[in-house]
Amino acid sequence: MKATSFPEILAPAGSLDKLKVAVLYGANAVYVGGQKFGLRTAAENFTLDELREGVAFAHARGAQVYVVLNSFLHDKDLVELPSFVEFLSEIKVDAVIVSDLGVVKTVRDLSIIPIHISTQASTLNVESAKLWKKMGATRIVLGREVSIKEAGKIKREAEIEIEMFIHGSMCMAYSGHCVISNFTQGRDSNRGGCAHSCRFEYSLDMGLSTMEKKKVFFMSSKDLEGIRLLPEFINEGIDSLKIEGRMKSNLYAGTMSKVYSEALNFYKEHGHFYSDSLLEWEAELNKVSHRAYTEAALVEKAGADSIFNERENVESEWQLVGTVVEASLKSGIIIEVRNAFNQGDKLEIVPFKGSAREVVAHEIMDLSMRPVQRTKPTTLVRLPYIEGIEAFNLVRQQVVSK
Amino acid sequence: MKMTTYAQSLHDLSVLKEAGLDEVILAHESLSRFGKLSTPEILKLVARAKELHLQVYLEWDILMTQNVFESALPVVLELLPSIDGIRVQDPGALHWVIENLDTKIHFIAENGNHNITALETWISLSKGKLERIVLSLELSKSTIEDYVKRLSVPCELLGFGRILLFYTPRALLSPLAPEKIAQNSELVALGESEESPHKGFPIVENRHGTFMFHIKEFCLIEFAQELKEFGLKYLRVDLRWTDFSYLLRLSQLIQVFNSEEFDHFKQEYPQDLMRGFYLVNKTDVLFPKLKNGRLQKREGNYLGEVMEAEKGSHLAIMVKNSRGIKKSDKLSILHPEGKTFEVSIHSLKNSALEEVEEIPQNKLAVIQFVGGVWVKSQVFLS
Fold first, then answer.
1. C-alpha to C-alpha distance for B379 and B382, rounded to whole angstroms
2. What ipTM is given for this predicted complex?
3. Cβ count within 10 A of residue A338
4. Which residue in B has a C-alpha nearest to residue A102's C-alpha?
5. Which residue, of A120, A122, B17, B84, is most buried by count of CB atoms within 10 Å of its CB?
6. What is the mean pLDDT of residues A139-165?
């Protein structure tokens, strides 16, 4: 049976630039954080002006913007919330993402903004979804412990929109149920201060007579990758497929948005997505920095093979060289350099649609039009203009192993 | 103020009665995070508890995906006639009990729920069936006092016991020691990390997943009198990890606090004790240090960001405001380290290095170099 409705691709946007990158690369919706009330205190996040601009930018391109208010707020934090909610109403955000019942009630009392229950609330079953629906929620972002099949059942029985994570880093704990940072680092993980203690190496004394203490990364999860399960998400009627990673780079935001939206569009067109393109999409997903991938609990309960058990030194074969800031016949392609490259290097410029364009950097100039042999990070350089290349296109390079 | 605690054996029930308690929490192996009791064992303990005139509360505090939830329901329904109330934490369990049972509910709001609005809303959702609400152990005393006085249902607080830091449904220990799985339904370990100053986190893996606890146990015994005066109705003691006979001494200390006796107790007790955030919770004070606030100041007359600073040549500014930049503008440039530079524009060029009078949003503006200004400096209109 051919599906008649399809999920949206929901991408992370840790900053206004990332929002633009994600939308331009095909995300149907983005989620963003203001300066308060979210769980990524260390992220750049959005000022009020940037939120206004971001919403206008996304809406002009048919994309939606959801704002995270998913901290577990203390009373004093809640005092500041109403004025922010009023502002979000005024700029017409498409939803807020909430985990705290006090925040749900505040938003519901003050606005008609749709409320999505954050994964931080660890909603795992039909009854829980029904309860949040009664409280005014319009969508549930399910806990990452829920399988796609269970999610379908929750959607059908609770009759509410369902969002599931399809890609990205994962908490090992039930989200919202880890307070390691609170008690060991004095940083409230549920108000944005997570110190990522689950990624630490631990020595474990398991009382084994035959062994020394085991040194392991036993609490570190592999990253979620669910691209091959796209048909299952569609068949179960999942409404939104979420990509984790507001702290991650422009390259990540752009690549994920492009790959998953292209895969979804292929499915819409062909009714399946098994083709040579699948291998290309998977290759693209491997071009961004990531831990080993797992499907975690999407099909069955996450097993031992979902544990990463390695140090956090993930290196990708590909790195972001920079982002195009302007491109025209007159000025050439101006790139904000993030990682140095040399004259003669082979680069890939990723257009918003279609395959990456291979470019050899024969001729590099600085902003003052002087020739450059080796670029430096945090500078601007020019390459000769190539038709079809636009501002916010990503420029990447395969890393040469030393 | 009454005490409540868990019992795992008939002997525990006797000790509990001797300590003057009039209720007990029973934890079933299929329903409770650390439950070890089978259905027949629960029923046996219920029968004895009734003889001792103890109220019996069944703990159903695991978090449940839909499949687990469905497998838990028959156990709950089988035990329901024997108990006086049920303690739930998963909002799904709460909702199901509200809608389907006519039993007293203790809602465990220990996770999050750090504002009165949330707690009052949980209560209002519960159709009058909520007999008790269990507050978070991250609350400070002034907050506890406030909540206890304002909430319409009696409150319970952990007074003594392990602090649960982490809960996952995944099995994290057994992959490291497969030879132990056959021997034990529960695996235990002590963990330490060079990246944390704390050593010896107790870790438990059981049928419900893996749990990590703080190296110290939570203890508010010295504040019991104060909590009583606040109006707290129930103080919970959890001795499932040590020796249940400590209950008698703890009960005495809660009834009449004696600092000398408490010091003896602390010396004797096998774990170090801590009061958590009881005196103050400042777990948000470090947040401003997690990023450079100066890079976040992009409100008001914000114009854009310095993308390149070429000494002796130019500054390249990405214009981010909708107004754009004009040659007549006076700029205020905020360095990432805090210094501010007031700048008049002598030269304004576009990205093709053509002299222009103004440049619109989302384009590069090239102006004269200003000594001391770095990349990432934020630019404002004066």
1. 9
2. 0.94
3. 19
4. B118
5. A122
6. 98
Task: Kindly report, residue by residue over B314-358, the tens digit of the pLDDT.
Answer: 999 999 988 999 999 999 999 988 899 999 999 999 999 999 999
pLDDT in tens, A242-281: 999 999 999 999 999 999 999 999 999 999 988 888 999 9
In B, which residues are within 8 Å of A176 by CB distance? 111-112
Give how far Cα A229 sits from Cα of A125, A226, A295, A299, B366, Å: 21, 5, 9, 9, 48
CB contact under 8 A, A177 and B318: no
Which H or E run contains B131?
A: strand B130-134
Cβ–Cβ under 8 Å, residues A251 and A338: no
Specify whether the CB–CB gap between B235 and B4 falls below 8 A.
yes
Q: Model-level pTM?
A: 0.94
Cβ <8 Å between A179 and B308: no
For the segment A117-134, the average pLDDT, to the nearest whole number, is 97
Our CA-based measurement puts residue A284 at a distance from the nearest CA of chain B, in whole angstroms, of 28
Taking CB atoms and an 8 Å limit, are B172 and A44 in contact across chains? Answer: no
> What residues are paired with B332 via a beta bridge?
B342, B380
Q: Token pair for residue A132?
A: 């949040």
The conformation of residue A399, written as its DSSP 8-state character, comes to: P
The alpha carbon of residue A356 is apart from the nearest alpha carbon of chain B, in Å, by 24
Identify the band that residue A402 occupies on the pLDDT scale cut at 50, 70 and 90. Answer: very low
The residue among A71, A155, A312, A367 with the most chain B CBs within 10 A of its CB, best to mutate, is: A367
